[in-house]
Task: structure prediction
Amino acid sequence: MRLAPFRILLGLFCLLVAVWLVMPTLVIIPMSFNEKKSLAFPPSGFSWQWYANFFTNPDWLSSFFNSLRVAGIVAVAATLIGTLASLGLSRMKHSGAGLLRAILITPMIVPGVVLAIGIYAVYLDYQLVGTTTGFVIAHTMLAIPFVIIAVSASLEVFDVRLETAAASLGASRFTTFRTVTLPLIAPGILSGLLFAFVTSFDEIIVALFITSPYLKTLPVQIFTSITRDADPTVTAVGTIIFIATTLIISAGLIISSKSTRS
Amino acid sequence: MSRTSHTLSAGGENARPAGTVQGPQRRLRLAAYPSLLAMPALLLLIAAMGYPLLTVTLRSFSDPAWGLQNYVWFFSTPVNVTVLWRTFSIAAWVTIVCVIAAYPYAYLMTAVGPRLRLVLILCVLVPFWVSGVVRTLAWVILLQDSGIINSVIRLLGFDGVKLIRTQTGVVIGMAQVLLPFMILPLYSVMRGIDLRLVQAARSLGARQARAFLQIYLPLSLPGVFAGAIIVFILSLGFYITPALLGGPRSTMLSTLVQSQVLSLLNWGRGGAMGVVLLVATFVLLALAAPLMRQRHKQASRS
Result:
């Protein structure tokens, strides 16, 4: 009985935290139907014009497709390189594995702007500013840690005796990998792929430095649009991304719950 | 883990004693040097991170002339020292706010049923569903003088508060972005705490508060440390949120680096600032490493 007020207080506090976490994401949805060209709250009227603007304005569309292209290549490249690295790390005998893992994960903690000016300096020398290659190299490096973390997590729970069993039954190393290891760590690889895609699709700091008028990614377009004029198209883009992600994640949840049930 | 590759290669050899010459050789080579698999990642890291950071460091010592003049300039200019100090103080505030908000939340995640837990986890993950820039824009909408928060405050009969372009606004926005990095490690530690220990303390006559302070809190501290270190380090390098939510009085070091390089084209000074930021990050990590290792040991013991 004495606990009741404490519990209520705890619940209320956590509700507040949950609202704080979610509200900024949701507030952009009503803003995207604003009739006026302003970001003042509350929005007035109702219109689809900012969605129409996104789908017809070449600046927005081209940056969207640039991001999609870069993030697609990055997702594949980072997943390949990162999965190989995690496999190697999990098989390393000596204590060097811990050090190597720590080194491979550093891009996550190096301050973005420091990395960005360095990459910008190098890219200026090698004419990589504003090129897809430049974006892909930088974003793959930034995405690899996420793949390594995701794949390593599933390798940690992976029972290596299964590999031994397959090998003792005469499977070659490659067959063992293809038919035993790969299917079992596939969830980790898939989530690594998703993380890599999102990392690249969302990356802004390095992108701001290595962008050019000819190659802008979506976050750069959003940032310049926010800082230059109060263009509500940004909120429409945000809403589209939010709804697309929600659909993808719910689909993933439904599929995974069905596959575990069967 | 150390036995893995050994048993694997042994098993492979037993299975195919008369294998081709090439097969076992390749198998042996990979089995002996699994680190080769990590080489592509390492090479990319050296090319895309190591080389750029080296370039920045070199320029900080060599641009416009060799010497320490850029660092002397950095530490002798009051504005820079103020900004450096402010960067640390904002990072500290963000960390404190995150700890206060995350601790009860992570605790509740361990205490409720699976359904409610899923809802709580989703609330933590939802912020990741929208790009960071858009989320920062949402904070601009919320915090501006005519924004929702000020409307609510005025509705309650108080005077409006200046939030946008202030340090408070920057801290609110940054803490929201970084909160998941605090909640998730805290939750994973709290989930492993054996609640029977708290019950035992209670049954031995300890009051609720004492059982919490003497049993639960110390056991959860590794999660607090882990989360706090991540949040603090990530805050130090924040760029977008302070740039959009902050004003001239809440500039952080990243913004100074950017303006030195892009606006003033002063690579030496910008590089020196960058190196200061980089060194601060790694010194903090080195200081925190023993704490992290301790956490690992504790986890493996249980």
Q: What stands out?
A: Confidence is low (pLDDT under 50) at residues 1-24 of chain B. The domain at 78-301 of chain B is CATH 1.10.3720.10 (MetI-like fold).
